[in-house]
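Researcher: Next sequence.
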Amino acid sequence: MRKTQKQPQSATAKGPKAASPSEREIVEPLLYYMKLQREMEDRIEHKLYRQGKVLGGVYTGRGQEAIGVAPALLAEPGDVLCPCHRDMGAFLVRGMKPPLILAQYLGRQDGPTHGRDGNMHMGDLKLGLVSFISALAAIVPVAGGIALAMRYRGQSNVVINWHGDGATSRGDWHEGLNLAAVQKLPVIYMINNNQYAYSTPLELQMPVKNVADRAVAYGMPSAIVDGNDALAVRAAAQKAIAHARAGKGPYLIECKSFRMTGHSAHDAAEYVPKELFAKWEKRDPIVRLEAYARKKGLFTEEELQAMSARVIAEVDEAVAWAESRPYPDPATLLDGVFEA
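Model: Next structure:
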């Protein structure tokens, strides 16, 4: 009799507990997606934008890739991700393909918004990706609403919400955290403390030393982690997700990092002391994880080079595809616009 091949169980199905991943299995996707985000954003900011092919703002997460990638890799089916403008890695991990992201930036019809935006204002509810709001703190109450809906539906899922230090100085951020804390909602707040809210340094926007200190007011557990250490971010996120998924309420993680660019592509960041760039360049999360992988013997030098070559080839192909796609038909300009 022919044997039926056993199908792998889904992440949400009940059954035997899956074996813990090996260290290589943990490091490989972390490194791959960080490299892919870095290469994608380099093409967008330093090539397509400079060539006049991308219009409007271009915001990148260079040096901050671990913050978006590590938690996203821990998300399960049914979990909802609310990334922000420096978290392209979360979009990639969740399944939004490079060609579609590049079509988005180039304003092409085949992008997620069908040519109606030119940067990271995009999402895909089928993938559990919610588009961010320009006033970044405004997404915090939305994340709480999503988590409340999950509770009504009896889901054991979580919401992961990313934003920067500047968002934590807005009123809607505090209202959102208060709601989540009172209702014990399953939301994980990933705070990218990259030291500057546009041009305002941290010490000029809040009187406390750490963003995580603000969680105390809401009785919310928190952690402070090196945001440039991908494995440290992963470990903190794993603990926070387990906490929220167990019904214990929200959790805040402050990731200490640094913005290795201006606020956006048009910003030369002349207000940032040059020595800070030199200091943080030495803490590059990709370089650090590669060094760790070499030290532990997880990958050969040839394998690391092959991964980099694969990423470059993928982005080459994605750029070519996106540039070949048409712009939207002007006749569709008002499609999806409704009068109240």
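Model: The longest helix spans residues 23-48. The mean pLDDT is 91.
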